[in-house]
Design brief:
Strand content: 15-25%
Shape: globular
Number of strands: 15
Structural class: alpha+beta
Distance between the termini: 26 Å
């Protein structure tokens, strides 16, 4: 395990001492300083010492996978992918349900966004508190829309096509110098998900045992994306290549609208591209046939099976999840918060794009899936089930009906193997 930093608080007079692991967010030194302060304040208030370790993101997945398989674990932690790691660990290892402590947060549904709470509930159990969200609203170039006489960004799929046609620029030789619309990033699975959800689909059953992609919603989403490339010709046929860089394309003016932009893009624009100030904005994701769901990932604070002092961990989680502490964490890291009061604070309402982030959270759809093989199914590499389905149809123009039928069978086979191994 690569440890970037460790801050060990001395054991308190009461002898309570718990371990906590977290991944860094924002500036590393500022993050460490914040946790030095928080652990010190918590010890003064409760007499409980928290020994924390900051885990490098480059090894975070393997670290938590090892934990879920019975490896060394802290008492409590900042985790993610609850649904998969719980499925892997079963009732032996990994995340610990804390449903019996649910009443320690009596206003959970009022205080936190619904989409974020989906990330801390699994199979009718409660596992912890969401603390950061990766929400991906639409981002567009206001200067290009103004040049085209467009007053507002697309509000639905039909307007995506209409505006994409007006914003795409072709040279006399036929080369495209600006694409009107980019659906998302160069990861086919992540790009597909919001459009599939907006068409009313889901990838698998709630227990993770049954593939549910052979349906009209999947055909609708794939046909829409396929037509963007091959019929309307407003999206690049190279958008899923490894060399594709949607942020660079947007900055350079090669893309006018990105339908599902990176969570960190606005902060990067403010910091790195001040010369573009006033030429870009965020908006809610355009509405599909059923809804306007947005891709949402989350990190959460929870307890691990085998914790030495669950009660002390709960006190630490309560301390971390207070409105005041979550405000400090959000301001230090720059990460959007799943706590409504934080997102309505002055820090998150001083720029128009920040207000859109908060509004988009009302449409957040968890990107978690309840299967230990989800990461393999959605790997951004050729040969993975979702990659092949999306790339072959959207870019390759393959028959959608046949591709969906094949993908359903392949996905079900993988889920069956996962179920048999558990």
């Amino acid at each position: 395990m690569a440890i970037l930093a460790a801050a060990a608080s001395m054991s308190s007079a009461q002898g309570q001492d718990i371990t906590f692991w977290t991944q860094p967010q924002g500036d590393l030194l500022a993050y460490q300083d914040l946790y030095d302060q928080l652990t010190s304040e918590f010890r003064e208030q409760t007499g409980i010492s928290v020994n924390y370790e900051v885990i490098n993101w480059s090894v975070a997945f393997n670290t938590w996978l090892t934990v879920a398989q019975g490896g060394a674990a802290p008492d409590c932690a900042d985790m993610y992918w609850l649904h998969s790691f719980s499925g892997i660990g079963g009732e032996q290892y990994g995340p610990l349900p804390i449903t019996e402590y649910r009443d320690q947060w009596p206003n959970l549904e009022e205080d936190f966004y619904t989409g974020a709470l989906a990330d801390v509930h699994y199979q009718d159990e409660f596992y912890g508190i969401p603390w950061r969200v990766d929400i991906r609203p639409m981002m567009y170039r206001t200067d290009f829309l103004a040049e085209a006489g467009i007053d507002a960004p697309p509000a639905n799929w039909d307007e995506i096509v209409e505006q994409g046609l007006a914003l795409t620029v072709r040279e006399d030789n036929g080369n495209v110098s600006r694409w009107g619309f980019a659906p998302g990033n160069n990861n086919p699975g992540q790009t597909l998900l919001p459009y599939y959800w907006q068409a009313g689909g889901s990838m698998m059953s709630a227990d993770g045992t049954t593939a549910t992609i052979d349906n009209e919603a999947m055909r609708t989403a794939l046909k829409f994306l396929q037509d963007l490339v091959h019929v309307h010709k407003i999206s690049s046929p190279e958008m899923f290549e490894k060399s594709a860089d949607p942020l660079t394309d947007f900055v350079s003016g090669q893309v006018a609208i990105n339908g599902s932009s990176g969570n960190a893009w606005p902060v990067q624009f403010d910091r790195d591209y001040p010369e573009l100030d006033g030429t870009w904005a965020l908006a809610l994701n355009p509405e599909g046939p059923e809804n306007r769901d947005s891709f949402s990932g989350a990190g959460y604070w929870g307890v691990l099976r085998g914790a030495s002092d669950v009660d002390a961990c709960i006190e630490w989680l309560k301390f971390l999840s207070s409105e005041e502490t979550m405000q400090r964490i959000s301001e230090t890291t720059g990460a959007a918060s799943p706590r409504r009061a934080v997102m309505s604070s002055g820090f998150w309402t001083d720029r128009p794009w920040k207000e859109v982030m908060a509004e988009t959270l009302n449409h957040g759809h968890t990107s978690q899936h309840p299967s230990s093989v989800w990461t393999a199914l959605a790997s951004p590499e050729p040969g993975a089930v979702i990659y092949d389905l999306v790339y072959n149809t959207v870019i390759g123009g393959a028959d959608i009906d046949a591709a969906v039928t094949e993908a359903q069978a392949r996905m079900q086979a993988e889920l069956d193997r996962a179920t048999a191994s558990n």
